[in-house]
Request: fold
Amino acid sequence: MIAADTAVQRPPHAKLLTVDARKHIGHVSRSAFVDLLRAGDVVIANDAATLPASLQGVHVETGAPIEVRLAGRPSLKPEYVARFSAVVFGEGDFRARTEDRPPPPPLAAGDRLALGPLRARVERLLGHARLVSLMFEGPSDEVWAGLARHGRPIQYSHVRAPLALWDVWTRIAGPPVAFEPPSAGFALDWRTLAAMRERGTRFATITHAAGISSTGDWELDRLLPFDEPYRIPEATAFAVRHARARGGRVIAVGTTVVRALEHAATGDGFVRSGEGVATQRLGPTTRLRVVDAILSGTHEPGTSHYELLRAFLDDATLHRTSAELEAGGYRTHEFGDSVLIERDQLSRPEVEALN
Amino acid sequence: MKISSDTTLNQSSHRGRETDPADPLAGARVAITGGTSGLGLALVRELLKRGAQVAFVARGGERVARVAREQAGAHGIVGDISVKGDIYPIAMQILGELGGVDVLINNASDLGPTPLVMLSDTECEDLERAFATNLLGPFRLTKALMGALAASAREGRGAVVLNISSDAALNPYPGWGAYGASKAALRHLSRIWGEEHAADGVRFLSLDPGDMDPPMHAAAVPDAEPETLKRPEIAAHELAEAIAAALPVRGASGGARPATSLTEGALL
Reply:
């Protein structure tokens, strides 16, 4: 597919490939997404704002220049902003593909990292030479201020101009806990949400700390997605139950929403509100218990996002979808076109009884 | 300037100042711009007293640090809302430190040229600065925080944007051109936004706190009689009452009253 190389969240010509519950493939303008919704459906998006997670600095012990990309956090609590998992790169910046970036100097527990105004220590390696757990020093407000001043959004070599925070925050962005943008949400704007309301389609959000999508390191990428904390508000859990009870569809905007909702429904299929940490991987053997359809970017085979789509579609239909995306000139990556995939009606669980 | 408000403030109740768990402001996450002097500082104090979680934004690093030290629990953020590049870093710190935002108070203001000059004597740069601070800053910051505000409303916490207005937004006072025109624009911005986001549950207030005696006013009108001016503490209390009235009532448990979606939940 063609890489979307311009940071425009809602280009007027954005396309949407649809796969309905009978596996029919269609092509519409993405602005027509709302027309595909029905009264009683609930659309759920990830309202995480994106952290400026890329920090340039120095490995103090060797003086070697490094880039630290924050990749995970154990909790969403505002004051828990000291400990992160992070991927460390050697010298260079986003203009080089991550695959071509040199490795960092050998890292060991206790190593000091000077990242602009921020000071951090390597706590330990996380099973890989460039994946570490680090601790920022200082009070949490100083860490937030340091990230705000010194951090840059994680950049992509396929996007030409450097990304600013406003390029990667969705219209609905709230808590800054994502490490890369929950980019399926780029499709949403306030006009779209108003149009949903007019149709009788509910809108709700979860907050999910979307991790990095790719490190450029094959061994590391095999570990993706990392564990991701999430929070489901009571109003959202209610909206899901309400939709299910009325036969409406639960439509997830992005893979992170699927991961959070399905994780929260582990066990009895009942989505509970509150915080959790999504640890599961979704793939062809996953039985979806909550989500009926996903609005997502276009994904290429081999990525964890593509694997997740296999929970919605059989491989034959997914292959047809990929072929149509290629043939239709769809654009891929964060600022690319979208797909709306509804899973097979037959695999839908029975409509749950009310309470 | 005469004392009048473009929306009348409820001046009736000066009730107890101890934290009241039923106060909608207790536990509310509030961001305020311009919180190191005058009305802004008085608002920081008032909101903290009422049990709110407060983040305030101001330009001067030393003053921010001092107020953050003096006002235990307040989160100080250094930034200039008139500068486009500062807005997202400010928004990120507000949302990061508070975990979200229920109330945004756009309080930071620029008076335009001081002492006052006639509009035709106003330098373009002075007019631009007044609009950057009084209109573009609130526009950009509110827009950046709108997702978080709407989320608060959906969750039943309520969401309020208070834009500090002035009677100069309504009346053509000679000498107040840059300030008056920018505040008139801010007032209209508030009204349109209020219409557009009513269904999202985000309330917009445009309130005139009345003439006060903070340093800014002294710069504009050096010979004003101090005893005719309102104390910032009084204005801050009135503004807090107006915000509280626009938020959902909390039960004795401290939980927010159900909003739209949860009301239906109670029906099931």
Remarks:
- The first strand of chain B starts at residue 29 and ends at 33.
- The beta strands of chain B are 29-33, 53-58, 75-78, 103-106, 159-164, 202-207.
- Chain B has one domain: 29-261.
- The domain at 29-261 of chain B is CATH 3.40.50.720 (Rossmann fold).
